[in-house]
Amino acid sequence: xxxxxxxxxxxxxxxxxxxxxxxxxxxxxxxxRGTHVAxxxxxxxxxxGRPNAxxxxxxxxxxxxxxxxxxxxxxxxxxxxxxxxxxxQGTYHMHYDGAGxxxxxACLATSKNATAWRAHGPALDLGETGQKxxxxxxxxxxxxxxxxxHMFYLGTPHTSPPPDLVPSFPYLTMKAEGSSPTxxxxxxxxxxxxxxxxxxxxxxxxxxxxxxxxxxxxxxxxSASTDKPILRTLGIARTHNLDGPWRIDPQPIVPPAEQIxxxxxxxxxxxxxxxxxxxxxGLKNGLEYTDAIWVxxxxxxxxxxxxxxxxxxxxxxxxxxxxxxxxxSVVKVGSRLALFYDGYAGQGIPEGxxxxxxxxxxxxxxxxxxxxxxx
Length: 375
Description:
Elements lengths: L1 H21 L3 H6 L3 E2 L1 E2 L15 E2 L3 E7 L12 E10 L2 E9 L4 E8 L6 E5 L13 E9 L4 E8 L15 E7 L7 E2 L17 E10 L2 E9 L6 E8 L7 E2 L11 E9 L4 E12 L2 E12 L10 E5 L15 E5 L2 E8 L16 E8 L2 E2 L4
Parallel strand pairs: 1-24, 3-20, 7-9
Antiparallel strand pairs: 2-3, 4-23, 5-6, 6-7, 7-8, 9-10, 10-11, 11-12, 13-14, 14-15, 15-16, 17-18, 18-19, 19-20, 21-22, 22-23
């Protein structure tokens, strides 16, 4: 009799447990997936008081996936950085700035899995003497309009002295086009998308950024800066014709005091939220350098709140570059978001122009979906 009662009690408890398990809200399981914004206990303070980020959207670092010095003909013997990554028909493509004896050029690498890359050499060459890209033709942003491929690239007639040949102001947006994502690319010197204008937030830099189709036209989130002092921010340029001029918004999307540059966007359809990844320029011992990847978020891609931002990757969660974290590019790979960036595997921060050299390309992962909660 006691055994029957004990068995009956166990069966009752088991049934209750089944009821409890089957009635666990599905949302609890959802909150365990993805990458979530967390509040920073101690935000980073900069010596000049430039704005900091109060939140963190933590990426998991994978490490170096492309080392400088691997490109053909020594095209990246002095560095590989400033990446632009996209996927087309099952192949991942990467434009990166290869620093070699000729200068900095947009170079191409390809991959089938986003982690093992094959270098193909320069996608662009320097312009002839007198052209605006005579000293550098780098950072090649691509966009496919279902008819042809467009490349918006950074050109400048000025660099630092050899051997580094670091591009210097003005940073200009220039145009090329091709029939495939690997080119060959034909430069369109007859098209000037936009250029720096005096007494504006883009007086020294108006360089290319991420392009999206929007409202029967196109938006480009471009890099802007002034000079003396250098104040960096992001602006929106607009066009209805990718082979024509762009109109620049009179105000940037966030204040120039933010000290950010370069853009890569991701749209989280589940929450209808746009995420804009950018590199932040920090300050240490009087030297400005790229110290972190930040992300801003918004429901309206044309309106951004400077308080809605988080640190994604810096020296605390990068496994190999503890000071320098450079330009981001994001692309969805399966159920994760791949974050490509450049860094420096050596110790500390090299002085002067050398701080821009001998970079390698790294990869970090963000589990999807990205979740900012109620912020």
